[in-house]
Amino acid sequence: MADLSCNLAGIHSPNPFWVASGPPANTAYQCHRAFEAGWGGLVWKTIGEPIVNVSSRYSSLDLYGNRMVGLNNIELISDRSIETNFREIKECKKRWPQRAIIASLMADTRENWHEMMQRSLDSGADGVELNFGCPHGMCERGMGSAVGQNPDVMEKIVGWVMEVAQIPVIVKLTPNVADITRPARAAKKGGANAISLINTINSITQVNLDTMCAEPSVGGRSAHGGYCGPAVKPIALNMVHSCAMDPEVGLPISGIGGISNWKDAAEFIALGSTSVQVCTAIMHYGFRIVEDMIDGLNDFLDAKGMKSVNDLRGLAVQSVQKWETLDLHYKRMARIDYDKCIGCNLCYIACEDGAHQAIAMVSPNGQGLGPGRLPGKSIPKIKEEACVGCNLCALVCPVEKCITMVDISTGLDPMSWEEYQVRLASGKMKAIPAHD
Amino acid sequence: MPLKAKTRRDAMQDIAPRYHPQEASVEAHRCLYCFDAPCIMACPTGIDIPGFIKKIATGNLVGSARVILESNILGASCARVCPTEVLCEGACVMLDRDEKPIKIGRLQRYATDAFGEQKANPFLKKMKPNGKKVALVGGGPASLGCAAELVRLGYQTTVFEKDMEPGGLNRYGIAYYKMPPEVVQREVKLIRDLGVEFRTQTEVGKDVPVEKLRKEYDAVFLGVGLGRTHRLGIPGEEKGGVVEALEFIRLIHTKPLHEISVGKRVAVIGCGNTAIDAVTQAKRLGAKEAIILYRRGEENMSAYPYEYQLAKKDGCGFIFHTAPVEVLGDKRVTGLRMIRTRTGKDGKAEIVPGSEFEEPFDMVIKALGQEKQTSIWKKLIPELKFDVAGRIECDRRTGQTSVAKVFSGGDAVNGGREVVNAVADGKKAAHGIHAMLSGKPVSGPLQASRLGHRDGAKGSGFLQPIRVPDLEAAYNRERNGKLHG
Ligand SMILES: Cc1cc2nc3c(=O)[nH]c(=O)nc-3n(C[C@H](O)[C@H](O)[C@H](O)COP(=O)(O)OP(=O)(O)OC[C@H]3O[C@@H](n4cnc5c(N)ncnc54)[C@H](O)[C@@H]3O)c2cc1C
Ligand SMILES: Cc1cc2nc3c(=O)[nH]c(=O)nc-3n(C[C@H](O)[C@H](O)[C@H](O)COP(=O)(O)O)c2cc1C
Ligand code: SF4
Ligand code: SF4
Ligand code: SF4
Prior knowledge:
The complex is a heterodimer.
Chain A: E1 6-8, E2 11-13, E3 17-19, H1 28-37, E4 41-43, E5 58-63, E6 66-73, H2 82-95, E7 100-105, H3 110-123, E8 127-131, H4 145-148, H5 151-164, E9 169-172, H6 181-190, E10 194-197, E11 201-203, E12 207-208, E13 213-214, E14 225-228, H7 233-245, E15 253-256, H8 262-270, E16 273-278, H9 280-285, H10 290-303, E17 331-336, H11 346-354, E18 359-362, E19 379-382, H12 392-396, E20 403-408, H13 417-425
Parallel strand pairs in A: 3-4, 3-16, 4-7, 7-8, 8-9, 9-10, 10-15, 15-16
Antiparallel strand pairs in A: 1-2, 5-6, 6-14, 11-14, 12-13, 17-20, 18-19
Helix pairs in contact in A: 2-3, 3-5, 5-6, 8-10
Chain B: H1 5-11, H2 21-30, H3 38-41, H4 49-57, H5 61-71, H6 75-81, H7 88-91, H8 104-118, E1 133-137, H9 141-152, E2 156-160, H10 169-172, H11 181-194, E3 197-199, H12 210-216, E4 219-222, E5 242-244, H13 245-254, E6 265-269, H14 273-284, E7 289-293, H15 305-313, E8 317-319, E9 322-328, E10 335-343, E11 349-351, E12 357-360, E13 363-366, H16 374-380, E14 406-408, H17 411-414, H18 419-438, H19 468-484
Parallel strand pairs in B: 1-2, 1-4, 2-3, 4-14, 5-13, 6-7, 6-13, 7-8
Antiparallel strand pairs in B: 9-10, 10-11, 10-12
């Protein structure tokens, strides 16, 4: 049994799985249920001057029979009073001293930020998360992503908060920016103790073609929403990695975005997250999913001989580097296992029309029956001289491990684009000829 | 002419082979991960089905197997032999959407197989030894379920089995094409590794007196199952080539397949699940014709519909409304004299006078159901009470019999159901024994509904398993009642 406990900038929790600020973290009742199920921490639904929500709030992207691959919402921050929220945090903290409770805050003036910080401290919260990420509704009032998108303003506000901070401060980043490291650096400059990312991404999930209104429809009218759920995981991983790689950020990270199971969580941790937060997957299946997250991560760490989840943190960060540093002499090629091939020819058409025309369809005559159950089917065959090793055929092949990508030795020493440019300039080599 | 071993082995192979990883993943993702799922309620051992399926979906196979084994130590057997159509799969919500139910049994097999092969430690929860001892009579599913639960609750447990190996009918009685012996042997090893002691070839009442067990142990569990196959009660029954179904099936599990002799024209008498197992195995082992004789009609047979379908698909024959009256032949059977029957006014089968006829057979398999062990146990424990059908009487919640410190479960109590029912009975009795010896009342279900008992959530089937046909019948009754009323 590996040690799953984690410490994010002084916030301790028995495991790295936190409920993200959102509907599942709205009330003391839910907080109790979450902790009963095993969650290590919970970031309270963002507290601020109570707002008024609309009815009809979510819409989703469904894909090939799978429901809610992506979720979109036009909900605002907590619609409960500031007093109620802090009273409940206090109550929960009393009952669950070992779990982390983080108050998510949103305010406008310096005085109001100071007051919210004092209330958080009084409630016994283990830390606060500043919500500069809500992409809808709040920016119009000079809060949320309006702040998160403007590094200078953000740095100033973080500074206000740090003037009075006695518990760790996490800044939650909005992904709706061109370069995520800019707000991350601003958080650092402002003095924040950690960052969390990502909040939701601006989105419209679908248009109802009968009513010609986008979803979710509030009486025939819609609004830009925030996108989350499994579909956003690759975007979130990319942003988490960018922050983990940037020495000027250098802050502990709480990773968020599309995490549904232990594998997703392990990937966020491998890319530099200390804790991870989950919202949509809980909205889909309930708090119970944490049982397998704990169990699965534990078994995984055991299987890899890691004693603690900290051993996993950051292991994949250095694997992602600038494109210019990759080896131009590395070569791989597709190989088809004909015992597995079912003869669907998806690899052929993908390569023929969508890639590099490196798969041929050859007659099975004289070569046995051909793939699949029906005799006489033509055989997909890799044209080795034409295959650029792009992986597309292996990605489309519906049979597990039927197309594998194998390393091909070129006999050449590694050479990156950077080195190539140097050698070209110094006349040490001729340009690699362009393809016909 | 007997077939060669190779073709025989092919014929006797797994009818539901193991999933490939991709198949398992697709099927696991099809499960909706229902909350307070009906499939759990329909599993007598209350396995957290969505829980273990979710773990297959996330690639956590050891964790998945652990979820299964925590609730059902014979999870690997049950995955293969359970009549899932009337249990978990019959309750799957997919059926209400007119789609195929999730293949729970095959997913369960996938997880337990992968686990069994990895030889991983399941890390099943275990309490500290409490110094108390329990003796279990019989090594079948009921005792195994009970012993595994008791050993995890901290008891020292010893299983007394009169046969060569533990496992009971699960070892010697299940159709070979559902499960080869290795699966049971692997399970027994797992239970032994948990700390359960086995004394095989030790018959209680003969090699060890019952009094000794009652004196030396803090409690005794009777998981003795049923007895021999009922006799036909017709002339010629003792002739060569007339065998009991259980003996025939036992041979298949103990001898190499090519050494088993099967007739060319085989009659199987009876029409329950055992008869179906016997007739399909006779056919698969090379009988030219294998025919079921049944004194009532197709609609009265007690075999499950899909078992009947399997036998028909295998090319077995069925002669309904016919009863045997005499086994023909000198020393060996050469045929049967039979008589036609019809359904009488009282709904029972009655013979049609003058309708006798003869048919040639060179093997007759008797599959009339098993006798109870009532007379044996009446002698061994005179205070033990039985119901009118000869089943050991006990509290179905705790397994407690009419005799202090003696508990029971499985076929001996329910008159013959499934492996999974026997395991569930054993588990319940373990908790009954634990409650008695620790002075605490029996605690709630092992797999409580995740809502607790609030809000009408039913939770697991461990306390009150539902059977889908019963549910459907109740539903139809209600609906018809409404239609007419
Ligand atoms: C032909 C056949 C096919 C079946 N197929 C299926 C199926 O496909 N799926 C399914 O779920 N169920 C099936 N069953 C039912 C299932 O096998 C039983 O319900 C289950 O095995 C009952 O378990 P048990 O422990 O109560 O009894 P048993 O399995 O009968 O075990 C009792 C054990 O006690 C031992 N014993 C008895 N007396 C003594 C004594 N005095 N001392 C020591 N040991 C003793 C016996 O040797 C035996 O090993 C089948 C049954 C039969 C007969
Ligand atoms: C309905 C809804 C409401 C949310 N409300 C908040 C909020 O009040 N404060 C906040 O910081 N994030 C909020 N979020 C964003 C989540 O905390 C999280 O960053 C995002 O959903 C991505 O994670 P996921 O893919 O696990 O859902 C909300 C998300 C959803 C779906
Ligand atoms: S999920 Fe609950 S609150 Fe939302 S629409 Fe359905 S019933 Fe209403
Ligand atoms: S995509 Fe895969 S299965 Fe289909 S033809 Fe190509 S190699 Fe065969
Ligand atoms: S009822 Fe069917 S879909 Fe629902 S959890 Fe059980 S197996 Fe899955």
